[in-house]
């Protein structure tokens, strides 16, 4: 009789230990699931916070002949027609996202065949070309124009040719035409770059620039102006900067 009671007692203890083990496994699984859910939450919060202060903008640009556009030092778009294309007149629309208070940087280039600064070399049309660029930036959500090219923009000429314009009719312009070519300053398109030594833009009319194909495709704000340096013909590449907001 005692032996049977002992056997029953041992069986009861074993069953109790098995139930306890199963209960422990169930608690561990629930804890792991909760931890995974908690880990996902900070990722969602970070994504939301990184875009919360940004705004979508639309930049509309027309250039004689080519441009590239930077926002706080980052390239956001450029003219789709290569600078090596003669008579490349077209308007471009570029959409980008930035936080208000951003800096616009623009490289603007006139078409030239080489460092003589001339075009149509060796033909009866050999000449110095003219240049110009116009820009406007719109807040996509509100439709408000937040920036336009005007006389407040600061520019740095980095390619001037010919510096002796009398070589325009030369039969050997490569030998006779002179130039002044500078290196782009490091970080020139960054927000913190000091452009206080740069000169302010000169504004021009569409007739002065000779605005052609693409110019009329954009409904330009009345405050937007065609700009360039003080010389439309000999200054071939200009860096431009302005702060928006």
List descriptors.
single chain, about 240 residues, alpha+beta, Jelly Rolls, 2 domains, 7-stranded antiparallel beta sheet, 4-stranded antiparallel beta sheet, 15 strands, globular, disordered N terminus
Q: Helical content, roughly?
A: 10-25%
H/E element order: HEEEEEEEEEEHEEEHEE
Looking at the structure, what is the overall shape?
Answer: globular
The SS-based structural class is alpha+beta
- The CATH architecture classification of the largest domain is Sandwich
Low-confidence stretches: 1-51
Q: N- to C-terminal separation?
A: 95 Å
Overall structural domain count: 2
Biggest β-sheet description: 7 strands, antiparallel
Q: Overall pLDDT, averaged?
A: 84
Total beta-strand segments: 15
Number of helices: 3
What does this structure look like?
It is globular and about 60 Å long. A hairpin with a 5-residue loop joins strand 8 and strand 9 (145-148). Helices cover 24% and strands 32% of the residues. The model is unreliable at 1-51 (pLDDT under 50). The chain has two domains: 1-52; 55-243, Jelly Rolls (Sandwich), CATH 2.60.120. Strands 2, 3, 5, 10, 11, 12 and 15 form a seven-stranded antiparallel sheet that branches. It has a four-stranded antiparallel sheet with strand order 4-1-8-9, with no helix packed on it. Strands 6-7 form a two-stranded antiparallel sheet. The protein is an alpha+beta fold and 245 residues long. It has helices at residues 2-52, 173-176, 206-209, and strands at 55-64, 66-71, 74-78, 90-98, 103-109, 118-119, 127-128, 132-139, 145-148, 154-160, 180-181, 199-200, 202-204, 226-228, 235-243.
């Amino acid at each position: 009789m005692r032996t049977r009671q002992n056997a029953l007692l041992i069986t009861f203890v074993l069953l109790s230990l098995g139930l306890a083990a199963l209960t422990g496994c169930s608690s561990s699984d629930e804890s792991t699931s909760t931890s995974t859910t908690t880990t996902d939450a900070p990722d969602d919060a970070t994504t939301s916070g990184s875009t919360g202060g940004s705004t979508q903008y639309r930049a509309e640009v027309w250039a004689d002949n080519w441009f590239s556009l930077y926002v706080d030092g980052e390239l956001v778009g450029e003219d789709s027609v290569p600078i090596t294309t003669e008579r490349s007149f077209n308007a471009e629309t570029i959409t980008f996202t930035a936080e208000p208070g951003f800096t616009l940087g623009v490289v603007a280039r006139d078409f030239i065949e080489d460092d003589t600064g001339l075009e149509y070399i060796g033909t009866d049309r050999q000449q110095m070309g003219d240049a110009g660029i116009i820009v406007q930036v719109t807040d996509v959500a509100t439709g408000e124009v937040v920036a336009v090219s005007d006389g407040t923009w600061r520019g740095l000429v980095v390619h001037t040719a010919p510096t002796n314009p009398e070589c325009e009719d030369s039969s050997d312009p490569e030998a006779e035409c002179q130039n002044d070519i500078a290196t782009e300053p490091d970080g020139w398109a960054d927000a913190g770059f000091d452009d206080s030594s740069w000169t302010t833009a000169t504004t021009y009319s569409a007739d002065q620039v000779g605005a052609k194909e693409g110019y009329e495709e954009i409904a330009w704000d009345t405050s937007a102006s065609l700009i360039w340096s003080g010389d439309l013909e000999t200054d071939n590449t200009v860096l431009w900067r302005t702060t928006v907001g």
